[in-house]
Amino acid sequence: MLLIGPRVGVVIVNWNGWRDTLDAFASLQRAHFSNWTLFVVDNASSDESVARLSDLSPRLRLIRSTANLGFAGGCNAGIAAARAAEMEAVFLLNSDAAVRADTLDALVTAHAGAPDAVLGAVVRYADGGKLQFFGSRTASGTGAPEWFDADADAHELDRSLIPSDFAFGAALFAPVTVFDRVGPFDERFFLTYEETDWCYRARSLGHRCFIVRDAVVDHLGSASLGAATSPLQAYFLQRNRLLFWEKHAGTRRLLRGAKTDLRWLARGFRDDARALVRGRSIAPTRRALFAAWRDYLLRRFGDCPASVRRLRTLPGT
């Protein structure tokens, strides 16, 4: 076990997922680098999370929130706790992710060579090891981030430090001084796009962003959002994409991206109209997208309406 490098505060946001969080903790305990403390923010879980995560180890500090702050607010609470404990760097880790034995070593080594940079790990799916995220570029048309493709952009992995527009929030490392300068995550996002927005803000202040090729995290998927096609995911991605464009892409690109999204939504609306005529209901995902547009236009941010969460239980989701 190595005890070198900065004091790293690992932040995990837990919401009704204590089993995944314990697995993530176990992976940290197997890491070669050992100068870390885990800060788990429990987002008002309704399961056994608090009981299961309390008093486990001196290396795990549980921060209990009385409300669900989302990933953005939970990270902010964890970063604040790490700062108060005089951590020198923060590593955000998803509750359903696991580090490998040398992941933290690779991040700390990269940090020594680029002390003011935002760093991210290469994220692979835990089931099969396929690449999920290893960097992104800004799309010229919309100004939105475009994730590297595992086939077309595989050459990027030839570099030990891969320049990227942002680091995936499932595995994001930065010194506390950078968090202090950039400020907290924008809690309007609640879930998705919060780390992208934060990294764009960091880059606007001159902080570079790299993905560290030799730092690998294995990710189960989106435990909070459900399946990739779930109404909940559709809602947050649509609403938050519009907010992200508004903040970073400029009016022209916002309108261009919104036009494309609305055209797609209109085609779906025609399908829904035909379904209603035939006595069927509107697809749950489409309902979620309508709600996302409505809430963006009405400036309703933070958590989604309860009606969107209920769509997760409808058939076909």
UniProtKB/TrEMBL annotation:
<dbReference type="InterPro" id="IPR029044">
    <property type="entry name" value="Nucleotide-diphossugar_trans"/>
</dbReference>
<dbReference type="InterPro" id="IPR001173">
    <property type="entry name" value="Glyco_trans_2-like"/>
</dbReference>
<dbReference type="Pfam" id="PF00535">
    <property type="entry name" value="Glycos_transf_2"/>
</dbReference>
<dbReference type="GO" id="GO:0016757">
    <property type="term" value="F:glycosyltransferase activity"/>
</dbReference>
<protein>
    <recommendedName>
        <fullName>Glycosyltransferase 2-like domain-containing protein</fullName>
    </recommendedName>
</protein>
<feature type="domain" description="Glycosyltransferase 2-like">
    <location>
        <begin position="10"/>
        <end position="137"/>
    </location>
</feature>
<comment type="similarity">
    <text>Belongs to the glycosyltransferase 2 family.</text>
</comment>
<keyword id="KW-0808">Transferase</keyword>
<keyword id="KW-0328">Glycosyltransferase</keyword>
